[in-house]
């Protein structure tokens, strides 16, 4: 793995760690997701496309998602397939697929996400997320 790929994988693993700790309820500082993103940033699903114009919008979106997962008994996300493609010195894509598991180890759902990440100030940050579903 090239240095950029290793850095991006570290970014992705760190994101999953913070997301998981918020969705489990281990922490409540939803602002902890902000270092993983640029603002503005966009999210796209099969239902809609949203541009989050400020950090408050990102925090509110993640608060809603993580609260719903807490209520459902979420424990962790397991990424079983992660593909990183470095496009140039400042841009890359990350495609991750896996499962969300509940506190009993049961499968809650699959997940799939495609992230456009860019290097800003020597750190990788996501500027767009596409939800690929299961």
What does this structure look like?
With 134 residues, this protein is an alpha+beta fold. The chain has a single domain (3-131), classed as Nuclear Transport Factor 2, Chain: A (Roll). 29% of the residues lie in helices and 46% in strands. It has helices at residues 3-24, 55-71, and strands spanning 37-44, 49-52, 74-88, 91-102, 107-120, 123-131. It has a 6-stranded mixed sheet with strand order 2-1-6-5-4-3, with helices on one face. A hairpin with a 2-residue loop joins strand 3 (74-88) and strand 4. The mean pLDDT is 93.
Large-scale geometry: globular
Question: What fraction strand?
Answer: over 45%
**Judging by the overall fold, what is the CATH architecture?**
Roll
Helix content: 25-40%
Topology-level CATH name: Nuclear Transport Factor 2, Chain: A
Structurally, how many domains make up the residues?
1
The chain-level mean pLDDT equals 93
Task: Report the span from N to C terminus.
Answer: 27 Å
The major beta sheet can be summarized as: 6 strands, mixed
- The topology string of helices and strands comes to HEEHEEEE
Count the helices. How many?
2
Task: Tally the beta strands.
Answer: 6
Structural class: alpha+beta
Low-confidence stretches: none
Strand order of the largest sheet: 2-1-6-5-4-3
CATH class: Alpha Beta
Radius of gyration: 14 Å
